[in-house]
Amino acid sequence: FPSSMESRAPISATELRDRLMRVMVAEAARCVEEGVVRTAEDADFAMLAGAGFPAAEGGLLRYGRTRGWC
Fold first, then answer.
1. Higher-pLDDT residue of 8, 41
2. Pick from 43, 1, 2: which is nearest to 24 by CA?
3. pLDDT confidence band for 8 (50 / 70 / 90)
4. What string of DSSP letters covers 38-59?
5. Statement: residue 2 has pLDDT above 60
6. Most CB within 10 Å of its CB: which of 36, 43, 51, 57?
């Protein structure tokens, strides 16, 4: 039997990055919706200061908004 990996077409590094980033953006948005963090700006600051998200992107949720993901 062929494995599921053998039947899939390869994806580009850009597509892989986008898939992973969409998951992170969705989770951060859920944290705001559920009140885990007060604002999107708080979540963005936490990613900048605590996780080392690139400052040029402005934070995780801002990154997602500029791409139309949230």
1. 41
2. 43
3. confident
4. S-HHHHHHHHHHHS---GGGT-
5. no
6. 43
Cβ neighbours, 10 Å, residue 61 = 24
Helix and strand element counts for the chain (H, E): 3, 0
How many C-beta neighbours within 10 Å does residue 42 have? Answer: 15
**R_g over Cα of the chain:** 15
Q: Which residue has the tokens 């953006």?
A: 25
Collect contacts of 59-68 with beta carbons under 8 A, ≥24 apart.
Answer: 60/24, 60/25, 60/28, 61/25, 61/28, 61/29, 61/32, 63/21, 63/25, 64/21, 64/22, 64/25, 64/28, 64/29, 67/18
Q: Which token pair is 9? A: 């077409």
User: Is the pLDDT reported for residue 43 higher than 90?
Assistant: yes
* Residue 52 φ then ψ, to 5°: 75, 25
